[in-house]
């Protein structure tokens, strides 16, 4: 690769990162519907042509931002879970980390509110299943195989728990209750405990 080719590749990547950064900031502050392409390119200090070089339009940019947010949440969940050796502790630490991550305003707005509305439920679920929901499915599978949870189909259980946590994260993010996370966690941990074998 020549120096010129490397310089151009670096500039393209900087432009893409600027569009993602400013798109994320604006989508989080104003919501998808409150953001226009002109505002994004102005904030990123690029041209509309540069935006269209990287993304097909606003929906495509939003999807890339959403994928970035979901990836960060999935990494947070996996990091919290992987800090524990016991399968039950991995599950509970991952669930709690997901709830805490959902309280961040940009995560709530982009991932939980606008994500399903902009992409459509099926496309949003596909992205969710590739991220945090995938980790949840793995954790539940390990627990069933270890006999910690009653033998049961894991896929519907993972969907039920994922839906409950997404709804809890939405409620928590909108709540002004300083004890909200602890209250939600008490309810969720009680649900999880009810699934354990005795």
Shape: elongated
Q: How many helix segments?
A: 10
Q: What fraction, in percent, of the residue positions are helical?
A: over 70%
Structure summary, number of beta strands: 0
**What oligomeric assembly is this protein in?**
single chain
SSE diagram, text form:
Blueprint: H1 3-30, H2 37-44, H3 48-54, H4 58-82, H5 87-101, H6 105-119, H7 121-130, H8 132-145, H9 154-174, H10 180-194
Protein name: TetR/AcrR family transcriptional regulator
Organism: Nocardiopsis codii
Keywords: DNA-binding, Transcription, Transcription regulation
Question: Could you characterize the architecture of this molecule?
Answer:
The protein has helices spanning 3-30, 37-44, 48-54, 58-82, 87-101, 105-119, 121-130, 132-145, 154-174, 180-194. By secondary structure, the chain is mainly α. Helix 4 (58-82) packs across helix 6 (105-119) and helix 6 packs across helix 9. The longest helix has 28 residues, at 3-30. It is elongated and about 65 Å long. The chain starts with a helix and ends with a helix.
